[in-house]
Specification:
alpha/beta, seven-stranded mixed β-sheet, single chain, 7 strands, 8 helices
Length: about 210
């Protein structure tokens, strides 16, 4: 991606509609109290900053250097946030956390099923995996119904998102990949977006 892409996603993450729905998703996790949070595909760092504000020590990773540069700038006064360049599979097993999150990541990776299993492997026993993805309702028509009365900047951001996704969603493809562990599904933005939360049993043992 280019610096232009990083600037665009930084603008998008700063729109109230986008930042508020991600704040709602992050608030599904218990307060951090110094626990660890790994945000994969962090982009300009919105989820990482929201998690830090809830008391987590956060590491955000992204393969795009411009995204990481942007994330570091936004979090320059936040000692709880660190950011590193890299892909999920390239990080050692030590890169794990009490909470692992991926927002709008699975839609863009080549193999969402294997990626969610890799994300799950990074969750500490007793911890959570938080996935935030658009649903099949994220279409231009769905956005039009939800965005009535919104501020112009918010409605513009939603229209761009709706056109980009056009109802394509990976959430149903990956929701059963971690069976027998079930996920809680929390609709956001009137169902245009879903937050999925898996909780790893405290006595979990990897095969």
């Amino acid at each position: 991606m280019s610096r232009l892409a990083a600037a665009f996603f930084s603008w998008l993450q700063n729109t109230p509609v986008y930042s508020n729905l991600h704040a709602q998703a992050v608030a599904l996790m218990a307060p951090g109290a110094g626990r660890s949070w790994l945000d994969v595909g962090c982009g300009p760092g919105l989820v990482a900053r929201l998690a830090s504000a809830r008391g987590y020590d956060v590491l955000g990773i992204d393969m795009d250097r411009d995204m990481i540069r942007c994330a570091r700038w936004h979090a320059r006064r936040d000692e709880r946030c660190r950011f590193e360049v890299g892909e999920l599979g390239s990080f050692s097993a030590r890169k794990s956390a009490n909470v692992v999150s991926a927002a709008s990541l699975l839609f863009v990776v080549p193999d969402p099923a294997s990626s969610i299993r890799e994300l799950w492997s990074r969750v500490h026993p007793g911890g959570n995996l938080l996935v935030i993805e658009t649903s099949e309702l994220m279409t231009p028509a769905g956005v039009q119904a939800v965005s009535r009365g919104m501020h112009l900047r918010d409605s513009a951001a939603l229209r761009l998102w709706g056109r980009a996704r056009s109802g394509r969603s990976v959430i149903s493809q990956v929701s059963g990949q971690l069976s027998p562990v079930a996920s809680d599904c929390i609709p956001l933005l009137e169902g245009l977006v879903q937050a999925r939360v898996w909780t790893k049993p405290a006595d979990w043992r990897s095969e």
